[in-house]
User: What shape does this take?
Amino acid sequence: MKPRFVGRLGPADAITLANAGIGFLAVVIAFADAELAARLVLLAAVADGLDGVVARAFGGSPAGEYLDDAPYGPHTPPPIASTGRGNY
Assistant: This one.
């Protein structure tokens, strides 16, 4: 028995969900290895750009509009960069 959502998600939706997973993994790994976490964030950024390209090329799904906000949430503020040196 397959889950109900399996036939409803398109390729762009899979990339969006992978983006969310990579972002979560980056947060978890950041405490142990900041360099690896930074690389994962860059990979997630590439996936974020790629999902739109794939959706336009292969067509989106009805769930895609809602999933596109999944990695960030609808009201997430932009990230705040800091050098970590106390210079704000």
Q: What stands out?
A: Residues 32 and 38 are 12 Å apart (CA to CA). The chain is about 55% helix and 0% strand. Residues 9-67 form one domain. The mean pLDDT is 76.
